[in-house]
Amino acid sequence: MNNSDNSNRHMISILMENEAGALSRVANLFSARGYNIESLTVAPTDDPTLSRLTLVTSGNEQIIEQIVKQLNKLIDVVKLIDLSETDSIERELMLVKTKAVGEQRAEMMRLSEIFGGHILDVTESTYTIELTGPGGKLDNFLNAVEKDAILEVVRSGATGIARGQKALHV
Amino acid sequence: MEPITGAEILVRCLQEEGVDCMFGYPGGAVLHIYDALYAQEKIKHVLVRHEQAAVHAAEGYARASGKTGVVLVTSGPGVTNAVTGIADAYMDSIPLVIFSGQVPTALIGNDAFQEVDAVGITRPCVKHNFLVRDIKNLAETVKKAFYIASTGRPGPVLIDLPKDITIGKAEFHYPKKIKLRSYNPTIKGHAGQIRKAVDLVMSAKKPMIYTGGGVILSDGSTELVELTQLLGYPITHTLMGLGAYPATDKQFIGMLGMHGTYEANMAMHHCDVLIAIGARFDDRVTGKIEKFCPEAKIVHIDIDPSSISKNVQVDIPIVGSVPNVLRAMISVIRDEKLKPDTKALEHWWRQIDEWRAIKSLSYRQSDEVIKPQYVIEKLYQVTEGKAIITSDVGQHQMWAAQYYHFDRPRQWINSGGLGTMGFGLPAAMGAKLAFPDQDVACVTGDGSIQMMLQELSTMKQYYTPVKIVNLNNGYLGMVRQWQEFFYQKRYSMTYMEALPNFVMLAEAYGHVGMRIEKPGDVEGALREAFAMKDRTVFLDFITDQSENVFPMIPSGGGQNEMLLAERDEMVSTHEEGMVLV
After folding, report:
1. Among B108, B125, B182, B313, the residue to mutate for chain A (most A Cβ within 10 A)
2. What is the DSSP pairing of strand A50-58 with strand A39-44?
3. Which residues in chain B show pLDDT less than 50?
4. Residues A94 and A82 in one domain
């Protein structure tokens, strides 16, 4: 994790062999070569032999070029796309547990609505809210909520897909 | 088809791959494999005395022959001992397949006896690795490993074999061909890029050809020589590239880099077009990156896209195999009858000859004490420049690179990237096994040789008569040199007291030992040693303790900031240079 300059933020989406150790190869590459990883998500795809990994990293043009080349060099990497280079959709899932007591209850519900969230769980003193959106929107929600009210934050890490007819597949 | 054991499948795979020689060390997890090896005669197995040596010997074999080297080690310490060798092969892109034993599948992760996560430990220093979990995949995995190791930019591939896999049974089918959807090295260069490169190359007024280990690995020497002579341009090699172009030809202006010749580095600094071929702009070559080739437009040919514009931004990248791309360039030049700018070239050569006249490799000879450079010069003469030379790491390595003039590829075998002390002796053994009829010499020092001394025993057992040229100055010379220059002569931990009597040591292992203390005895000793064709001879040359490797670009310096022997006062390098190694 690293404070990254947003202008150099890149979301790279990778199709790789669904093999033991494939994820470690990617993670290893980033630590061994000193590249930043802001977030990393991985899950199987509709093709059971492939997993899809999305990572958010940052760096200048030369570093990103090296990251892409080094990733492509990994034998388990089948294909990748730098989604920041194309028109794309980014989504991240966040679960937030907040205090919800007295006046806070109405306020929190309103905020959740404004951000298009869903309240998944309610107790007499807490709400658990689900939000999806680009990372920036989730940040904005957290900024909008009174700091003391936040009990727990879980984020999935960003994932994304290209807009239009462009599709990453084998 | 009768089912056979995993161990038998493995041996059959190796035979299918045409493996004739492998290096290894047995242990509990690989007992079944050793039993299967016992039952056959096609593959010769060399029992080393330490697993690191198995890998270096396989490297020596692979570097000399171009074939893929094969190693077999047991689990746990067998693998961890091999890691240095594997990392060495990775840094120099040497094709190896390493088989490591593993505890039975059911015990993996239980901290079993001699268990180590081999795949995890080697991941950062292999091209790829595999853990075989199902015997049905064994043969195909071996096929993949050899394919991956030897194609594209070569490198080591490890296969971890749990013991139960070697005991279980399956039918043996060896795939004839293998195709990997995620691995498809680019061989042919892009025609448009080749066109652009030729145009730039032909327009050069002060051209320079700079080539590295990639030319050797791809067997691109013939094409390189043809192109270089067609153009008439000066050529320099990296440490790993020596031998790709004959060093005795006048177009070769010596090695470049930290201890390269004055003319090579000056020509690099002043060139207007740089043609980089199978080289990776390593820090030992570029010196301070901001000062590297300031006037040059750069063409870079490499099979590995990640080598291109990694350290130095280039103008015309060409991804492809060296011989393939060079052949394409040659045919464009020939077909279109393109001619270099001869007038500019004449002028450029005059300038280079002026730099050459400085004779940056000259050193002061002595009647009293043996100069290490002199030993290499005599080694070159006595072997008529024909021996395969391996080296360890340190001052002696630089002197061997500078004073032995390599005329053919795969003649010079050294640990360039990782800089592994101890590499030279096992590598010499591997090279000798690949070419039993050729003279093989290991140039080493009193520090390096002691890291792999035990292999003298292996060399006796397998009859690999090599000549060990020990430049014994009683110091870890390269470190001492840096301490002299940059740490005000505070020689911290670089003096080797209590060195063994190498003559007696060689004899203890059943070899011949010689100690040479006078310059006048150097040539005679070498002649005597090389006359003993069937013996390993340990030549212990007692050399000048204070001799330094020159010329030198101190860390942080540019290529035009070379220090020459006895001409320049060695000044402490700038502070920013001190952090570089």
Report:
1. B182
2. antiparallel
3. 570-573
4. no
Does residue A75 share a domain with residue A35? yes
pLDDT tens column, A61-99: 999 999 999 999 999 999 999 999 999 999 999 999 999
Q: Which of B15, B16, B114, B496 is catalytic?
A: B114
Q: Residue A20: list chain B partners with CB under 8 A.
A: 131, 133
- Whether residues A77 and A100 fall in one domain: no
Beta-carbon separation of A75 and B124 below 8 A: no
Q: Is ipTM over 0.95?
A: no
Quick one: pLDDT at residue A6? 55
| Residue A55's CATH number | 3.30.70.260
A1 in a structural domain? no
Distance in angstroms (rounded) separating the CA atoms of residues A120 and B512: 83
Catalytic position from the list B163, B288, B378, B467: B163
Largest CA distance in chain A: 57
Q: How many CB atoms neighbour CB B336 within 10 A?
A: 10
- Of A86, A108, A139, the one marking the end of a domain is A86
Q: Which domain holds residue A62?
A: 6-86
> Residue A126 belongs to a domain with what CATH number?
3.30.70.1150
Active site residue B114: yes
Contacts of B371 (CB under 8 A, 6+ apart): B363, B364, B365, B519, B543, B544, B547
pTM here is 0.95
Give the pLDDT confidence of B309-340 residue by residue, as tens digits. Answer: 999 999 999 999 999 999 999 999 999 999 99
Domains of chain B: 4-170 (3.40.50.970), 191-356 (3.40.50.1220), 372-542 (3.40.50.970)
Q: Are residue A75 and residue A13 in the same domain, yes or no?
A: yes
Same domain membership, residue A102 and residue A78: no
- How near does any CA of chain B get to the CA of A71, in Å? 9
Torsion of CA B554, B558, B562, B563, to 10 degrees: -30
Q: How far apart are CA B20 and CA B14, in angstroms?
A: 8
SS (H, E, C) B386-420: CCEEEECCCHHHHHHHHHCCCCCCCCEECCCCCCC
Q: How far apart are CA B209 and CA B195, in angstroms?
A: 17
Nearest-angstrom CA–CA distance, B141 and B8: 15
Domains of chain A: total: 2
Residues of A in contact with B304 (CB under 8 A): 73
Which amino acid does the sequence have at B450?
Answer: Q
- Nearest Cα of chain A lies from the Cα of B212 at a distance, in angstroms, of 20
Do residue A82 and residue A93 come from a single domain?
Answer: no
> Does B172 participate in catalysis according to the annotation?
no
Q: Inter-chain contact B182–A17, Cβ cutoff 8 Å?
A: yes
Q: Is B130 one of the catalytic residues?
A: no
> What residues of B are in the A interface, CB distance below 8 Å?
119-120, 123-124, 127-129, 131, 133, 148, 180-183, 304-306, 308-310, 313
Chain A residue whose CA is closest to B124? A28
Please say which residue of A33, A51, A86 terminates a domain: A86
Instruction: Answer whether residue A72 is part of any domain.
Output: yes
Cβ-defined contact of A24 to B123 (cutoff 8 Å): yes
Question: Which of B17, B51, B59, B455 is the catalytic position?
Answer: B51
Looking at the domain assignment, is residue A44 inside a domain?
Answer: yes
Residues A58 and A104 occupy one common structural domain: no
